[in-house]
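Priority: low. Protein: DinB family protein. Input follows.
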Amino acid sequence: MNEQLIPREGEYGSYYEGYISSIKGQDIPAILLSQIEEVRKVFEKLGDLKSNLPYSEGKWSAKEVLGHMTDTDRIMSYRALCIARGEKISLPGFDQDEYVLQGKFNEIPLNHLLEEFEMSRYALVSMFKNFPLSVYSNIGLANNYPASVRAILYIITGHTLHHLQILKERYL
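Result:
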């Protein structure tokens, strides 16, 4: 792993430490791509019907978790793009619960949600691959916290890993 791609202290909000530390020093682009197949396998086991059900009262369904992962990939990718291009304004946060509510993911066929996750993930990996190495250390503000391009790359990967673990432990 290229040491220049590993985020350093102060490049992200403390909230993200768990996501980053769970994968620090690993081949992040390879993990991002391997997560596509891992997500597909989890949802193959769950099936369409079970994917519409939460594991507990007040929790998201598995399809809502998948929609949330895709939304988060896109939002974080946008943040990374802005910061890579030198954006100086603070990028907004988002209310994940409201996004899930408005996404109406349980009304979308599972195969469409899986395809959307896969396509957005390929676009994300392509974008990161084509960034000049020099921009990975760029730091901007996202939701009023510092965020480097390389930290965002780790956050996206760790966030998906976090939700995959929950899907496996609580939904299967």
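The beta strands are 139-142, 145-148. The chain has six helices and two strands.
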